[in-house]
Amino acid sequence: MTATTGLSFRAATEADVPDVVALVESAYRGDASRVGWTTEADILDGRRTGADEVAPAVLDPTTLLLLAESGGELVACCLVSRAHDQPSDEPMAGSAASGPEVAGPAAHFGMFAVRPGLQGSGLGRLVLAEAERRAADEWGARRMVLEVISVRDALIAWYERRGYARTGRVSPFPYGDERFGVPRRADLEFAELVKPLT
Q1: Hey, what CATH class is 8-196 in?
Q2: Which residues pair with 113 in a beta bridge?
Q3: Percent of the chain with pLDDT over 70
Q4: Is 184 helix (H, G, I), strand (E, B) or coil?
């Protein structure tokens, strides 16, 4: 039996908040995260998320905190948010737009975490596909937008293999705001990627 056997999806409830926080932290922070390949332990210390961020997302009607369970256990999660902005013709400061521009409603993908010992099993691909399907079918989203720390080359390549492309837009990392972690290097920024949804 693998993590993808009997996989089921559901929206998170308030009772799930502690488990979601623990999952996200385990996938990105500390030595435990090094079991998987999505760790940020070499670039960031501190927290990745907390109940103060997860609980409001559960209650927000414009977001979906999607849980993936296998055998009754939480194995992955992601946060999909409605975003109604149109793509700009002008790139963000310091960038050169090069990716696809798709008009229409957008959804934003984030807080993506797969249990470290299950990373590389195909589970993440299934969670991403379910998030895209729900955003398109339930909200009418025509594109999915996400941001990745630009030095995360392997993670960006993973998204590119799933149809995402860099837009060329970047945004600064919130240095000094420990809610987003404590940086271990001075060159962090977010790269925007987008995928058209059909």
Answers
A1: alpha beta
A2: 77
A3: 87
A4: coil
